[in-house]
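Its record is retained below.
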Amino acid sequence: MLGVLAFFSLIPSWAQADLFHYNNLLIGPRAIGLGGAFTALSDDTSGLYYNPGGLALQSSTELSSSINTFYLKSNTFDRVFGEKAFEETARGSLSTFFGFSKKMTPPLLGTVQVGIAFVNPDSALSDENALVENEPATSVRRYHRSANIRSGASQVIVGAAKRIGKDFGLGCAASYLDVDELEQIYQDAVQGPFTFQELPGKAVYSTLGQNVRVHLVLRGGALRCGIRTSFESGVRLGISYQRSEMVYQKLDYDSEINKVFTDENNQVIEVENTSNASLKGQLLRNIIRTTTRSFVERWPDELRLGVAYQLWRPLLLSADVVRMGPGQGTIANVKRAETINVSAGAELVLGGTLFVRSGFFTNNDATASRDLSSPDQRREYMDYRGVALSTGLRLRSGEYGIHYVEQRGKGMAEKVAGKQESSSGRLQVISISASQSFP
């Protein structure tokens, strides 16, 4: 009987979207098609996001942008109700990148390239309405879940870089990060029939209802510094490091749970002087309202290493390794393990005008776990593998392209407490981009 309470493990303890998936949305007009393998290049304004050192090697004023015109994410959780799967979907709101960079000559510093960028690292909307009826394997007569979830993260980045010699660039960028997530979920479950010694010959049904509203706001700053260098052999190397601090945190959690036992005619059952723990407090209304102001103790730092090679004039190859440090906090959801992701990309320019790019990347989940040192003990996670394709025109005055990114993932999920099953996911993004250069 107590197993009926397990269905409310379907409610997350707070809105978290994909804060600790780092490649849900690839950033930057050129970097998208390369699968994010851009640290050793970073030669457009999205270099502020990957490696500010590459900004120093720009030779002109640049205005660039990209817009995600389509975003669809779906996760399937196997055997949640007996053999029946459970699916969650999310669509993206408008998510953009916009950047501007220009050479300047401030006093004492000489000529430097400065830039500003507006970035949406993640943005999604989810409107779900699921109904499951008559699942005998789990004694579920009816389960209903309605969810409305919106999440978004935005950054403003300002940076500067200086060229040292012919092929070496050094730069730093400061950014402001704003995360805002709202999750409103209602669900109810009816299970039965059950029998109790206190109620001989009577069928008993349990009905639980829960309404949850969670609002998460994080604001903070970050500093990223990096270098980029190139050699006559056509090899380019890049490295950057970012450290972040959250300066404002707020988590509002409102939950109301109602539980009642009824007979087959939907009449409330009351039992006097029972020793059965399941029947005690058979009429229950539990309201929780909390506000937490400090729960993130350490935001994951980021180290990026990149290499690129101009194999021949029309063909470029690039690769990145990205290490995200652990996250620490006072609640389990912000305790994250160290994660390493990789990416690789290729760019072919035909006739000096038509470009074709492709990339592969990983998007591993730095999930919380019962034991962070044991990957097999992760309670719920999804590790993605992604591919990127893009094409467009490269002109003297700028570049214009269209991009498609798809990720597919596999993992484990514990949607019902104590019952861990496999899960799978798919994430698709279509975007367009444009860059304009000025002498």
User: Anything to note?
Assistant: The CA atoms of residues 99 and 320 lie 22 Å apart.
